[in-house]
Write a structure and sequence with these properties.
This protein is of the alpha+beta class and 393 residues long. It has four domains: 2-59; 66-204, no CATH class; 213-300, Beta Barrel (Lipocalin); 304-379, Lipocalin, CATH 2.40.128. Helix content is 25%, strand content 32%. It contains six helices and 24 strands. The chain is globular, with a radius of gyration of 33 Å.
């Protein structure tokens, strides 16, 4: 509007000057016309200068400094502005910038989906391949792989969500496979259809003796098999089903309302987007109720809590799936033994391969940790998907 006013004012001045010149002699007219041209030239110069300044300012505004986030801990997030001299950086370009900043290989391929971004970590990335003999930058030096891995996943997720305006990031590896990070606790297995929730969430849910452990299993409305149900993994995540079997909601669990001794008496369920679904509390280890004391009652399926992959302290894996159990070596592929499972109210009996007793048993202790005798097993997630049933040991 300012430039328009300048041009309009100068046009009016030119008209007035021309009119005045038309009533004068030729000498006066020439002088007046010269003065008019000088004034117009100055006005045009001012307009061009202002336009140039405005263009420069617009370019500067478009070249906003994007920010890389280095997340060392929840209370230690460091920002590193990176000038964007052209178009807005893509997710891959932001990851490459993190590589340059930290000296770690954030080698990823990113795909946009309706919910957010799918970030596929390359087999050559530091997260998947490890450090090897890499010389770490002093500012980004880690003394253990666990801290380094959490740093990489947290930093990339935070950088992408803050700069690209997305809320959900899924992590996969090696072309879309489930991300499994080496030398990490049991929670560091990231399903392809579950958003990455940040290290604080996973570490808070990784303690086998935590109150989340007792939520593990399939909980059926009134204990019936043809009603609604809630499946909880014991690490703080859930899937809620309608009676038809269709998924009603998926998300995470938060512990709330604790007694002075630290025991949790209430849990809230939220979708991954943070929408509250419902809350529940325990009546016993095998029964919960939704909402207040008069709410709906859900009972634990006797077998469901045992299902999954468990690891002994020495690294041997126990897989319980349906009515069978299998024992694997540390590589999780070499099968050592197997047999049927017989479930009772207080234990799961691991029968010999021929169905006879004597294979041992596992049960849950007062902390709802799975134990074999006095040995505590750690929950490692869902059962394996090994197709070769031939023992290799």
């Amino acid at each position: 509007m300012k430039k328009a006013r300048i041009i309009l004012t100068m046009s009016m001045a030119m008209c007035l000057l021309t009119a005045c010149g038309g009533t004068s002699g030729s000498g006066t007219e020439t002088t007046t016309t010269a003065a008019s041209e000088t004034t117009v030239s100055a006005a045009v110069s001012e307009t061009v200068t202002e336009s140039s300044e405005t263009t420069t300012q617009t370019e500067a505004e478009n070249a906003q400094a994007e920010v890389l986030y280095a997340v060392f801990a929840a209370d230690d997030v460091r920002e590193y502005p990176v000038e964007n001299t052209g178009a807005k950086k893509t997710a891959e370009e932001l990851a490459a910038a993190l590589t340059e900043l930290t000296g770690l290989d954030f080698t990823v391929t990113v795909t946009t989906v309706d919910e957010g971004l799918v970030v596929d970590w390359s087999a050559d990335s530091t997260l998947v391949a490890g450090l090897d003999d890499r010389e770490q930058k002093e500012e980004f030096h880690f003394f253990d792989n666990v801290s380094l891995n959490w740093f990489m996943m947290d930093s990339l997720c935070h950088t992408l969500t803050e700069n690209l305006g997305v809320e959900i990031v899924y992590y996969t590896m090696d072309g879309g496979e489930e991300l499994v990070v080496k030398e990490m606790p049991s929670s560091a297995v990231f399903p392809v259809d579950v958003p990455y929730l940040g290290s604080d969430f996973y570490m808070a849910h990784d303690n086998e003796n935590s109150e989340f452990a007792r939520t593990r299993g399939l909980w059926r409305l009134d204990g019936a098999t043809d009603t609604a149900s809630i499946e909880m993994d014991g690490l703080g995540e859930f899937i809620m089903y309608y009676a038809s079997g269709a998924v009603e909601a998926t998300g995470y669990i938060e512990c709330v309302d604790e007694y002075e001794d630290g025991s949790v008496i209430m849990y809230n369920l939220y979708t991954y987007e943070g929408e509250f679904v419902t809350g529940f509390s325990f009546d016993s280890d095998t029964q919960i109720h939704i909402g207040n004391d008069d709410g709906m009652v859900y009972k634990r399926d006797t077998q469901s809590a045992y299902q999954g992959l468990w690891v002994y302290p020495e690294g041997v894996y126990l897989e319980i799936s349906g009515d069978t159990w299998k024992l694997y070596a540390e590589d999780k592929t070499t099968k050592l033994d197997e047999g049927p499972v017989q479930y009772e109210d207080d234990a799961a009996y691991l029968m010999n391969a021929d169905g006879s007793s004597g294979g041992g048993k596992v049960h849950f202790d007062e902390n709802f940790s799975l134990v074999d005798g006095e040995i505590v097993l750690t929950y490692m997630g869902e059962a394996l998907d090994n197709n070769d049933d031939t023992p290799k040991g």
